[in-house]
Amino acid sequence: MKRFSLNQATTKHWPLPELVAGCVEAGVTGVGLWREDIQAYGVQKSAALARDAGLAVTSLCRSGFFQEPGWEEENKRAIDEAAALGAPALVLVSGGLPPGSRDVDAARAHVGEAIGALVPYALDAGVQLAIEALHPMFASDRCVVSTLKQALDLAAPYPAEAVGVVIDTYHLWWDDAVWEQIARAGRERRIASFQVADWVTPLPAGVLLGRGLPGTGCVELRRFREAVDAAGYTGPIEVEVFAEEVWARPGREVLDETLELYRTHVV
Known about the structure:
Elements: E1 4-7, H1 16-26, E2 30-34, H2 35-41, H3 43-53, E3 56-64, H4 71-85, E4 89-93, H5 104-125, E5 128-132, H6 148-155, E6 163-168, H7 169-172, H8 178-187, E7 191-196, E8 198-199, E9 211-212, H9 221-230, E10 237-239, H10 244-247, H11 251-265
Parallel strand pairs: 1-2, 1-10, 2-3, 3-4, 4-5, 5-6, 6-7, 7-10
Antiparallel strand pairs: 8-9
């Protein structure tokens, strides 16, 4: 249980000071934070709040979106924020196709080049860029990186301490090659973050909000955890859920249920 980390997205409407206090009361030692929330509260204030409470910031979500104008400046700003928070990993969602484009290969190649341009800055800041593969249904508008293999191939030209990958059960559960790619990620020392959520059926109209708490869907969560452990990863395990019905509940209630489900279905 010491590896458990609550990703802020799971309790989206829980104000940051209450989230931090609730985690401390529950014995949780890690939190994954989101940029819009820490920007609203204040980056330095957020860092001090977590630090004074003894909470480790396990990741900062998110940056990337390399098809957008000004991507380089925005990503450097995100790296600075992660460094200020003491977050070891900055999660990158690559972005989709540029407007009017159908060339997914070119878009994916641009992601690799853009990440390469950020590597020196990330190394200086001591922040690992963590490429997250999203389910293929998000490829057109949100993330042209759809498999763990693609993420690892994009990371391969760069030092492991600068570029790693996110293993997110919600996005990767369907891929029959994921187990060999998790082993590869371990060999290459690329596992920057491990995030857990379940896949619920049927998906809601807003597909992004189709994540369930551990054990409420069809994903072999313990198999993922065992595979990640076997690959040599000993870091935090973040529960990251997007679901309106979860967000509508009190934050501490959600945290308590999440901890129980994590014990039952992940550990």
